[in-house]
Amino acid sequence: MKALYLLAIALGSSVAAQTITFNGCHNLFDNQNFIFSKTGVDANNKNIYITTPVDGQPCSGLGTCEFKIKWNNALTRWEFLADEGNGTFTTPTLMYYNSTGNISSPRPPSNTFGAWIENATATGGQCGGNLTGINSTLTGDVHSTSLATTDVTKTKIQIFPNPVSDVIRISGIDNGQTIQIYNVDGRLVKTDAFDQKIDVSSLSAGVYVLRITTKNFESHEFKFVKK
Fold first, then answer.
1. Across-strand partners of 21?
2. What is the rounded radius of gyration, in angstroms, for the C-alpha atoms of the chain?
3. Nearest to 190 by CA among 171, 163, 168, 210
4. Which residue stretches of 47-191 are H helix?
């Protein structure tokens, strides 16, 4: 195998399907886009993504190939797999794996969340090492923030009401800079300048994480329930 260099994965998501676009590993896969489409959900409620069309996409050093991103529950990690060369994944080749990104999400982590580790046994150590923000991008139907947060218990900082219907109020912060709201699987659904009143009326019912960043770059996170 020649050098494996992951350059880009970008999202194309719609109501009908969730997709991840992969461009990289140019010595093996050429400089082209591979479109992953969500094909289903496994028994552990993790999304499964496979490139399309199945079989026949040129990828230079590998001939033709297809890829799959899926969860390996036995090893508690996300895996980036290559097929056997005919569009099937009976005995696929492991290219990368990520066991440190947020494993509670149904979507795979981005290249900056946890570590996508190169499987040097399969690649011959020619892949440029683990995925980083320098040698690759991994965006799209992926997540990049951990929701394994603990509720802030500092008495000076509070959000209320919780649960909330329309407006969250924040007390105890006078140097706030930005707010970000993430849904339960880590997708950013709202971002805005800091305000002590946040309109959440447009959010669907569910559990969210509110992240407040201050002007001195402190970060405070709160779980809340939208009714």
1. 10, 35
2. 20
3. 210
4. 120-123
* Domains identified in the chain and CATH numbers: 19-140 (no CATH), 158-226 (2.60.40.10)
Q: In what order do the strands lie in the sheet with 219-226?
A: 188-193, 176-183, 206-214, 219-226
- Closest of 149, 143, 164 to residue 212, by C-alpha: 149
Contacts of 43 (CB under 8 A, 6+ apart): 73
Would the pTM count as exceeding 0.70? Answer: no
**Per-residue pLDDT tens over the stretch 27-45:** 677 767 778 888 999 998 8
CA angle, residues 81, 78, 6, in degrees to nearest 5: 55
Q: What are the structure tokens assigned to 54, written together?
A: 């199945």
